[in-house]
Write a structure and sequence with these properties.
The protein is of the alpha/beta class and 351 residues long. It has helices at 12-23, 40-49, 81-91, 107-110, 112-132, 167-186, 208-218, 237-247, 285-296, 320-326, 334-348; strands spanning 3-7, 27-32, 62-64, 71-75, 95-98, 137-143, 190-195, 198-199, 221-225, 231-232, 235-236, 272-277, 283-284, 301-305.
């Protein structure tokens, strides 16, 4: 399991994961299309942090890191079938970690086709590449969004998730189904990870913490949906990365107790497994904002608004399976996580 392909390495989670894997002496190949869904400057800066120089990046060209001898990066679209499959055929990865996707619940209402192209067609190419090249473990990002209209808390991987409320969530549910199909047909060990509201340093500028911080510092109002009564299982980036890395050698296995009479959605007769990775401690949005105000030493001007279409009022992760299988559970408090984010934000923007 020494040679790993990580997709989305110019992105938030992918950047952190690639960096941690490299520090643990894995051989890493990074893939990203560096699209303009949000400011590409932060994407290029993340890449620079891992030794990938912007001026050397060309489409479908491997770039060697100037910092990590075992890191190579290639700019490519996942839906580019020919070049993705060529990469798989040439490099013969031991493990593939698919984090690249068109993200954002609200943007999926505005531009649905972007989600089908990247999250469905792109993931199909990852599955085909894995199928034909003896990938020993495929790990892929799902999302807490798949729980959709579910209201039973905490959300468990053993619950049915057939009622998504956004196209983004539907594509993530589709990824789980596609992975199971390939696991069943071709015995590819597949592990799906449902991330819960990830935040932290080098985060996405379109996410609430980033938007709130920028607006508060500029003295501008922040949009607070559902009048701040939303609850989220905010999960700090370091905890997400630790969970992923511990799961790399934990290759999915068939569940001998699985039964078609009472099918467990989290496992299978095939080598397939789903985990939640969340903080297991939902926090009300207003409290999240209070902590941010404390570390910014400035009060927010709140524009209280109703719930948005495609949103859910609460997320809360049951992480029993994760802890049972790898002995780890996220534990970074929002006080600690937001403090680290604010320190990074002020440093990054020289404030």
């Amino acid at each position: 399991m020494k040679k790993i392909l990580v997709t989305g390495t110019a992105g938030f989670i992918g950047f952190h994961l690639a960096t941690k894997l490299l520090r643990k002496d894995y051989e890493v190949y990074g893939v990203d299309n560096i699209n303009d869904y949000y400011d590409i400057r932060i994407k290029y800066t993340r890449l620079k942090e891992t030794g990938i120089k912007e001026e050397e990046i060309e489409y479908n060209k491997l770039v060697q890191s100037s910092i990590y001898p075992k890191y190579k990066f290639i700019k490519i679209n996942l839906e580019d079938k020919e070049n993705i499959l060529t990469l798989f055929n040439k490099e013969k990865f031991d493990c593939v970690i698919n984090l690249a996707a068109q993200a954002g619940v609200r943007y999926s209402i505005i531009n649905p086709y972007a989600y089908i192209n990247s999250n469905i067609m792109g993931f199909l190419n990852i599955l085909e590449g894995s199928r034909h090249n003896n990938v020993k473990h495929l790990i892929f990002a799902s999302s807490s969004s798949v729980y959709g209209a579910n209201t039973k808390m905490p959300f468990s991987v053993h619950h049915n998730v057939d009622h998504p409320v956004s196209l983004y969530a539907a594509t993530k549910k589709a990824n789980e189904l596609m992975a199971h199909t390939y696991s069943s047909l071709y015995k590819i060990p597949c592990t799906g990870l449902r991330f819960f509201t990830v935040y932290g340093t080098w985060g996405r500028p379109d996410m609430a913490l980033f938007l709130f911080t920028k607006a508060i510092l500029e003295g501008k109002p922040i949009d607070v949906f559902n009048h701040g009564k939303m609850k989220r299982d905010f999960t700090y980036i370091d905890d997400i990365i630790e969970g992923i890395i511990r799961l790399v050698p934990k290759i999915a296995q068939p569940n001998p107790e699985w039964s078609g009479d009472t099918p467990d959605p989290s496992s299978s007769y095939a080598p397939y497994k789903i985990y939640n990775i969340g903080n297991n401690n939902p926090v009300e949005l207003l409290r999240f904002i209070e902590v941010l105000e404390e570390y910014l030493s400035k009060k927010a001007v709140k524009n209280l608004l109703p719930m948005q279409s495609g949103d859910v009022p609460k997320t809360y992760a049951d992480i029993d399976d994760l802890f049972k299988d790898i002995g780890f559970k996220p534990q970074t408090s929002i006080e600690e996580g937001i403090k680290k984010f604010v320190e990074w934000y002020r440093s990054y923007y020289s404030m």
